[in-house]
What we know:
The protein has about 475 residues and is an alpha/beta fold. It has three domains: about 10-285, HUPs (Rossmann fold, 3-Layer(aba) Sandwich), CATH 3.40.50.620; about 330-415, Four Helix Bundle (Hemerythrin (Met), subunit A) (Up-down Bundle), CATH 1.20.120; about 430-475, no CATH class. The chain is built from 15 helices and 18 strands. The strands form six sheets. Strands 5, 6, 8, 10 and 11 form a five-stranded mixed sheet that branches. A hairpin with a 4-residue loop joins strand 1 (about 10) and strand 2 (about 15-20).
Amino acid sequence: MIKEIPIRFFNTETRKKEIFKTLVPNEVKIYTCGPTVYDFAHIGNFRTYVFEDILRRTLKYFGYTVQQVMNITDIDDKTIRGSMASNQTIFEHTQPYKNAFFIDLKTLGIEQAEYYPQATDYIPQMIDFIKKLLDRGVAYRSSDKSIYFSISKMPNYGRLSHLKLSELKVGAGDARVAFDEYEKDHAADFVLWKFYDEEKDGQVYWESPFGRGRPGWHLECSTMATEILGETLDIHVGAVDNIFPHHENEIAQSEAMSGKTFVHTWLHSEHLLVNHKKMSKSLGNFYTLRDLQKQGYHGSEIRYMLMQTHYRTQMNFTFDGLNGARTSLHRLIDFMHRMQEHAGEGETTSDCRQNLRKAEHHFNQALADDLNISLALASLFDLTREINIAYDRGVLTPADANAVVELFKMFNLVLNIFDFKTDEGPSTELIILMKKRKQARKEKNFKEADRLRDEIYANGYEIEDTPNGSRLKKM
């Protein structure tokens, strides 16, 4: 563990940066809101998932053991509507989207969480949760036969979103909502168990002591989180649109159940916009990961684009921005290949050691300051500039280059944007072609030099001329 640097996170609940402390020394319990598998996840979703991956990897980088839960919401209003529209069971409808989600995680280099609980696997536990809330007098059966949570029984309701219940609009009638989401300025008792409605629910229901029905979305997360991680979590993460009502409702029902603090640190990522507009299929600016891949962008390029803006800052997606991210990433990758080719044994120089220490210090400090990824990446580019100057001057030793590679491997534990698999390198035949081209240029036989260059290109390499001589670089 990097003990000399305290980590600070901006806690949504307190609205300030706090030194991060865990319930158990060096162990972190994290709950991250996962996908609702009614469709393919879009790049706005993945902006949050990449941020959560940077968080997870940073904690491990600083020496913590991480237990992460990411839920899979496979039962809610949207999945039910989708299954009915496709004339499939809820399981048949959601399975392809579950499979696609895990493929997308791999494409983006997102490390697997320890647990991916599916809501439909925890129905008995959710029923028990509701029973206990009824026993505690904070839940009730309504005239529509559904079970609701009474937010009036929780005087601190609204503390996460910093909304006062008395100032929020209350829905018409009996101020209850039986659906899974409601408006930002609307507060109401929320459904814990939604009584079965054949017209709206089709064949999707479970038997319970409260009658046929299914759990509410808010209850699902509280149940899975506390069943796997316990009554109090170190960190709960999600997008800003989860703050109210979803996370607010999680707090209410979880703390009513346990009488304990549900979460110590809340982290929320801001929205991703597309050309400064909210992403929408109707506007034609809705992109899934697959949409970008079809246009030729690789997972590492998309990951770099999604990670480069601080998680609490709105991100504006444009294709110009994505191309800029691609250029920046490949600048770092080309630099790393250059270092790998030059790396060898021997003594490192004092100048190189000083540059590496400075880069590592700045990288660590940036991550410890609420995951300031922009500054962390800047430290890589600053180091790249200094090392390239030394290389071009011919004063960078093979040992220096090797030390640079090792430091980038350490940075990559968090960033996961580099592939350090060593290329077998150009064949002997290509090296001979490069030497022949050099001789042809020396003899001013430029036609032959161009032909040799094109033959080298056709084999997947390009020639880079440096002060230290020419080299073949993988294209």
